[in-house]
Amino acid sequence: MANNHGIVYMGNGKVEVQSIEFPKLAINNRKCEHGVIVKPIATNICGSDQHMVRGRTTAPIGMVLGHEITGEVIECGKDVEFIKKGDIVSVPFNVACGRCRNCKERHTDVCLHVNTERAGGAYGYVDMGGWIGGQAEYVMIPYADWNVLKFPDKDQALAKIRDLACLTDILPTGYHGCITAGVTTGSTVLISGAGPVGLAAAAAAFLLGAAVVIVADFNKARLEHARSFGCETINLGIHDSIADQIEHILGVPEVDCAVDCVGFEAKGHGNTEAPAIVLNQLMEVTRAAGAIGISGLYVTEDPGAKSESARLGTLSLKFGLGWAKSHSFFTGQTPVMKYNRGLMMAILHDRIQIAKAVNVEVISLMSAPEAYQAFDSGVAKKFVIDPHDMIQ
Q1: Interstrand relation of 188-192 and 255-260 (parallel, antiparallel or unpaired)
Q2: Do 161 and 184 share a structural domain?
Q3: In a domain, 390, yes or no
Q4: Residues 197 and 320 in one domain
Q5: pLDDT score of 1
Q6: Which domain holds residue 183?
């Protein structure tokens, strides 16, 4: 049996590469003959991982991280019919059974069967069902016929693997934020946050036909990268109001729609934590009857929060403003399977260059701890781990 190594959470601010158990077709003493063993070709570091590593969740020490998995199938359970050994596949970060009411209604983000504690499952993530993470050399994927997306041509997939690696999470997540916000031909869009998901949302907005995409952040390097593929930008470190800066760009102080790609660790001026600030800002500058897509992560418990209410996931929203403007709000994790096939086709046929948009940098498994630190410092990169040195 092959060895296996993975990225393990070791407490606040620390991850390590450790020897871990080779995956079995089982979870919590239940057989998973519907599953496959995948050898990751690309397994990415996500901003959501950083919430755990910063100690902002109840993640246990010893958890194997990683929910953005693209790889080669090396073993199939006896109940797998349509996925074969040797297939190159994209794995949605959502673990879903394909059998429950929510899965059948395409709400794979809140599958009812893969987590005993709440609706919804994910690999290598706190409170999401105990599924082992995929920042590793090998990982088990359950309900494979339902969950994985097979790429139609192996050589084509390997040639575009940097882009296809973004199909597991950030591209569908950014796209979902735009879809739920109502981005369409000619839209003006404000995207809050220029991290990888924000940049993916910006690229998705252009794919959907937006006329103007504005990205807001404090991070100058990330804003510069957003401008490199056609975005307008707002530097939140400037004391001019966001509405004034939007008016300078558009001639009016509001946008048609907005996407929150920051989440609960949002900060205001002076680097002070203000978990509701992005949502309140977006309500202020989104037109009446507009919509706000919330791709940023919000948690039910934040042990690292500064206030008691925030520790319980309670935010000080200007909800009356949103109500008065007849805003629509769309929350929740992205049902990746709803979008990944269409986005795969857009990548394969050069309609979107997502690796360029999010500035993919390929790294080794052993260098992942340093990449976690670099990502946390705010570099304008999306780190893609190549555990087997397969990416050319």
Answers
A1: parallel
A2: no
A3: no
A4: yes
A5: 57
A6: 173-330
